[in-house]
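Input chain follows. Return structure tokens only.
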Amino acid sequence: MMNPNNGMMVQHGLLLDDPDSKTKSPVLSVLYARSEDTGLFDRDSLFGGFASMRALTYSASIPMIMGLLRDYDYERFECIFGHGGILGREPRQIIHFQQQIDERLSRGFVAIAGVSPERRELLHDRVADDRARFFVVKDAIAHAKIYLLERDGLRRVVVGSANLSETAFSGRQAETLVVYDNDDLAWEHYCGQYEDVLATAVSSLALRDKPTVAGVMPVDEAPIFREVEKTGRDVTMYVPPETEQEAEYGSANILVNVNNVPNVQRAAMPDLDRRRNGSPNVPITPAVVRQARRMPVARPEEEDESASLPSLSYNRRGTFTLQGAEINLDVKPDDVRRDAQLLLEFFDNYRDDFVGDVERLQRDYFGFMSWFYFAPFMCDLRNANIRQGLEFQQPMFAILYGRSDCGKSSLTNTLMISMFGYGKKGFVPNNLFTPSRVRGLRQEFRRHPVVFDDVSNNRFRQYADEVVKDGEISHGDEYPCIALLMNVDTRRFKPEIIKRSMMIYTQTSLPGNRPAARERLQASVSRIQDTLTTSFYRQYLKDMSTILETMPEDAYRDVDVLQMSSNLLCRLFERNLPEGEPAPAWLEPVTLSGVQSRAYERSEKVLQGLLSGDRYTKERHPPTGQWTLSGKHVLIGVDTRSLRDLREDIPNWVIDDAASVSDQIVLDHGELEEFLRTPVRKPTRWPFGLGRR
């Protein structure tokens, strides 16, 4: 308990894992103690029977807190919500964290389980009377877990690794808890740490009668703003600068590098995956060790090449930096011409070997190129809109989906090479497609587009809503656009995703029964990718930055980025065509409205097939695969196995869920006609038994 060197306890402020935190002392405090006993965790014996409880925690479980307030009559209760990791180096991120806790706390009080109306009112009264108080950090980080409990004759300190959550106290994960009962030195030490945070690093949380969703909560309702308004005094938010070590070992960098296991390692240790059989336990056997010993060692230059994430910045004065190195925008016309002709050759490959509406595919892929090339500038337009209080209408996301052999990855890889000199190195492993990890990638990539290739349907369903909505949150001055490449099994997209994304769907593809064509195409693409330089894109960056710099900021709100970008690309391509060669048919300006008008094209095709004239029946309960009209409804017979897929193919506002049953989908007739932009009527019968719509 005492310093063994001088018998004195060194007590300074709370140590936070940030070198410049205001609550960190330059001297690290150590409490020397001696253990007396061990026992099993029991919530009642540990936290029950006390008059007051104060908690400093992060990753707190609101239900756990609600349970403590419900079950124990604390005369005084305080909880400080810290944060378990670096929030980033933007004030807005700390404010949004405060908003998230605000929302969850209010929801917890509204939805608290097992409480009578009288008890619920009593809990609200405690908050109103300031007997239950909640705070949230306005510093960037707070790691400590401290619980201070008091009653007559007993002062208890509980410290350790366990957050105030049901998971931490359930025994399902390894945690450490240390209890000090009536230990004056421990009480003084940990009370001092708690009070330091309370005094300098938190904002008060007020309970709302009705929870407000953090994503739409007005910024001025964040706890730190309400604190300023209530006190009338300035409040300092501490946002520490990013250190060199954090940049190198930031969460996004570590996650990407850990998940990008070199293929040579995967091949050298196949038994690591084969032996799992779905178990979380992975046996490391002598055979696995022998495999590892045979694994080739990466060369130092290979390690350096994969050690850092792509990062693109622009200082708004014509200077771009890629991973810290300035991009030279002075390019030779001959180099631009060579790259332009290689890119035109790449697009011509679709005409030679693909089957389907190839011209449409080329136009759509040119539209994607226009968006992808412009992506590093998108944050500037969005920031300008935010400053003017306007809703940003341009797509921060692109979703390129269709058959697995429609060339999505090859296109994106080639464009990436033409932009930055590398291709799939800029792609991100799909298991990082989660809201928190995408948030970290945004900070690391800055303006560099983030590409997820072959995103699975399940992962998209689970995380896309939150990832796309999180894109509405400011992530500093520089943040990237995100491209998702997906296969055809992805079905209905929610309207809010379509609204915020550039959607490109294609059924045109390279047939699998033409091996010679596939080999010819692969050889051509490989040669083009090996020959391409970044000259064409550097000329694009130079010209586009000039256009934007000479444009008044209030004019940004009227910009159609696809039209502006495709116009510039058309000019660049046309002035670099081989002499006497006309521009290809697909090389024409693209507009955002034109792309968005095709966002529901797949759904239209599905409905048109379902409602063909030869499938009409007069039966009031149509058999599977047939349809009929009934008042204001269109009834379609379906089998239960295909019901789920079919419901995903049809826009949700067209379906009448209340009227639909297990073997029948019911559509609103008016909404259906408006969606298809054509009347839906029973077919006219012609004399010889032919029918038409």
